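Appendix B. Chain record.
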Amino acid sequence: MEFGFMRTVFDSLGAGVFVVDTTGLLTACNPRAQELLALPQEQMLGHDMHDLLHRRRDGGRVPRDECGLLTVLDGGRPAEGSEDLFLRGDGSLLPVIWAATPLRHEGRVEGAVVVFHDFSLHRDAAEQTGAHLAALEGLTARLTMVAEVSTVLISALETPEMLNRLAGLLVPDLGDWAAIDVRTPKQPGGMERVAVRTPGDHGAVEGLTGPLPALPESTRSAVVQALRGGEPVVLDAERLAQEPDSPLASAHRELFERLGGACAVVVPLHTRRQVFGALTVARAASGSSYSDAEVFVLADIARRAGLVMEAAELFEQQRHVAETMQRQLLTPLPQVDHLTLAARYRPAESAAEIGGDWYDSFLLGDGVLTMVIGDVVGHDLKAAAHMAEVRNMLRALAWDRTEPPSLIMRRLDEAMTHTSDAPMATCVFARIEGPEGGPWELHWVNAGHPPPLLITADGHTRFLEDGHGPLLGLSSALHLGLGWPDARAALPPRSTLLLYTDGLVESRTRDIEAGLATLRRHAADLVDRDIEDFLDELLARIDPSGDDVALLVLRTPPAGCGAGDEAPPQHAHSPAAANRGAPGSRVEDTPVRDTSEPA
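Structure tokens predicted for this chain:
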């Protein structure tokens, strides 16, 4: 939670709070402490807390070795008391109940925070004991609630889960029940109740969540006033007794009929730009009410929740734009002379993790098939845009050239360095070469990307480590004499060639060496599957999470399967693609499956 909100809590607590350093000097105090002690801040800060405040009943100073407050600094453990007196600015003595907790940083005690109440109204032993317990329990509950709200609001949770947990944290400290109603963006004027929380029987809230009536044009409804006015609305018993004047007001009234309520506060979940919904918190006890401080804290919590909702909405918009851009680049895969291709793309799970992964396959001007896999540095919308830029530059540089992949990669690096603001990128660019009907050969270069994996028909696997050079976009690479050596490898009959991005083999919980070993094992087990099943089962077994993942796989035909043989079933024929193929070759466009949607 932001420092400003924590400062608001510090200043608004209905208890005196001060902070001391390791020597006992006062370093901070809240307004309530100044009020209780009748001392302005400037007469407290920098003074020794014990010498300034701690007194006996006769007004004399308490010996330092008898001060319970100082034991927190010496022993590093929390302490509490109810038999102490503080000296006020007017010379009178204030009986206090207090609790002190050490402040730790990197395992060291660097001070203490002391919370205290005026205990002057509780003189006899029975009242002292009851007030002692009540005050400590109240302080503990409020501080625990504030800490938990902070955790919820800064956690990367889905919005419905965050709102449900937030409502639960407000009960019972700030109300006997809490409910959250939100606008439904896809339906103008639509509303939905996403959370209703009570401290006890969950059956009491059954049927209260779900779609709500639409926002009316005009109404006295507190929810509508909060949504349109952006300010808290306090409901007392008189206002709660008014008859509802709209379907939405009736739905809000149902909360009070089912759960009870003598008073309530409705606060908007909002930012400066928009209002996302409303939070209702109610107390059922007759005669109960909400203080101005409580209304302020609820309003501020709701505003912080609105900021989280706005951030989630912006992330989702960014994710949608990036995924749309990436899907537009998932062009159909060509199928040439019994060579079969398949691909998968799985977007990142988090909106903040949209990446620059891509794959591509197209025919060059000489009829040769290419395979490309790459990853632009970054995890945001800009990375996706740079990915599209690099992909299109590579296509433009390669399609009409009959030259080694190393020269294509050199031109791409120069173009990125001198004509683009795209950052560094990894890439494998390969040509599938050979006479019509095979045998086939892979001719490739690798710019800092995980190595391709070749699986033969008998399940033998090996990573193609040759052809490795620096990442693209390193302007110093060529000046240092670095380059991308061409590499070649035979593609035996019925072999499988897999290109993939690092999201398949590397994660926050697994290093890349372990990931490569896992990939190799599963790929060998699945080599007998057709390539569509091969990819689906490979993703299911590895189950990558976090980063984007792109895969591109090639399967060569059995020995002796030439262009004149009966071809396996293919997808719709593309004459335009066929016209670009080598004479006599079979060229078709195969749709690509995006694993972010059901296959």
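Further analysis of this model is presented in Appendix C.
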